[in-house]
Design goal:
Organism: Candidatus Onthovivens merdipullorum
Distance between the termini: 82 Å
Largest sheet: 5 strands, mixed
Protein name: DUF177 domain-containing protein
Strand order of the largest sheet: 2-3-4-5-6
Radius of gyration: 25 Å
Number of helices: 3
Helix content: 10-25%
Pfam families: YceD
Order of helices and strands: EEHEEEEEHH
Shape: elongated
């Protein structure tokens, strides 16, 4: 879906419902198995040659677990803002330059992919402990070491300078 920014001289809200599975195949993203639903709104607020685009996107994705490689569904709500200009002189770090049209599908795809965590776990999969090993936070390890019954703890109080 492309929008021509020059068509917007007043604030406008655009309802969207798109399918991004074809982009997912193009980019060969193995994390997202399927985009089940993508809908939301794009608010365009023009101010002279700069356009503020506010994206409010609700999506349901079929993802691949980083741990078990099983598929699971996840809902994701994304709210992003983007400054765009059609004037090359106004381009900056915060303001993206574009010709008159903007490819919304690629932008939304990027927003969704960048809002996913690096490690994806299916529900009830966050713990990978078993009898041979376990995964704990560093803070918990420090607490365990402090509370351990180490036989050498009695040497802590021993004054060896005497």
């Amino acid at each position: 879906m492309e929008i021509n920014l020059l068509n917007y001289t007043k604030n406008k809200v655009i309802d969207i419902e798109i399918d991004l599975d074809n982009l997912n195949e193009t980019y060969k993203n193995s994390t997202v198995s399927k985009f089940n639903k993508i809908s939301g709104t794009i608010t365009i607020e023009p101010v002279k040659d700069i356009y503020l685009l506010k994206f409010s996107i609700e999506t349901n994705l079929t993802l691949l677990s980083s741990l078990s490689l099983k598929e699971f569904n996840k809902d994701l709500n994304i709210n992003e803002e983007l400054f765009v200009t059609t004037n090359k002189d106004l381009e900056s770090e915060e303001t993206m330059f574009t010709s008159n049209s903007l490819d919304i599908d690629n932008l939304i795809y990027s927003f969704i992919i960048t809002n996913l965590p690096i490690k994806l776990y299916a529900p009830n999969e966050e713990s990978i402990n078993n009898e041979d090993y376990r995964v704990i936070k560093e803070e918990d390890l420090i607490k365990e070491k402090d509370n351990s019954n180490n036989p050498f703890d009695i040497l802590k109080d021993l004054d060896l300078d005497k």
